[in-house]
What does this fold into?
Amino acid sequence: MVQNTDTTKFRSIWCCVKVGGWQKDSDLQTRFNRSHPGFEVMNKVTEMGYHLIASSIGESGAPRLPCWRLSFSKAEGVLLKHICRNSTLMHKATVKILKVLRKNNESTLVLEEEDDDALDSRILSGASGISYLISWGFHSYVIKTMFLHEWFERPEDSYWTQDRLAERIRSILKRIHNSIRGKDIRSFWLPEYKLFNFRARRRTRTNKAENTVSTLIKQFEEVTV
It folds into this structure.
């Protein structure tokens, strides 16, 4: 952590390590066969490598053990540019609308981690009526990840025409809802890599986020009727 003397603000500096080659635990080479429309571009992105970024499990609340976070940002940039290359299709519009929905519902689209230490203090002191929950904002990266899963399973252009825009948004919202409900938000790049490691964190309540996404799904069901 370093201090900016001009603005008297602190800025974080994180260690980042570039790794050549592709992650050995990734299943992209077997998932993308020659019949998939994205076969050629996936061969390209797997040659770009990835990054290890110093992080920690639990960026808010009590300090946690340091760890390394995997980043595939360069590969994602190339892949998204390829997917959105045809401006007559609704790939880019789908992502934009989902991000707007997230922004408009950010107060309830949260995961709430129980703070056991604070709860123990509350019990000992006899305090009541105070909530000891750490709220985690629902990161836009989850939207991007679920979009990539949707594209992988439905890569043909016919699924991304304007008349099917609401259908695609609803389908991705259902993916998000199922992932939250199952507490299993998986990376697009690595099948065993979780974007939100519930086991590493304390007990987490997901009901607010589930209810919010359920409401959004119903709204888009009405649009497609």
In short: The first helix runs from residue 28 to 31. The chain is about 40% helix and 15% strand. Confidence is low (pLDDT under 50) at residues 58-62, 119-131.
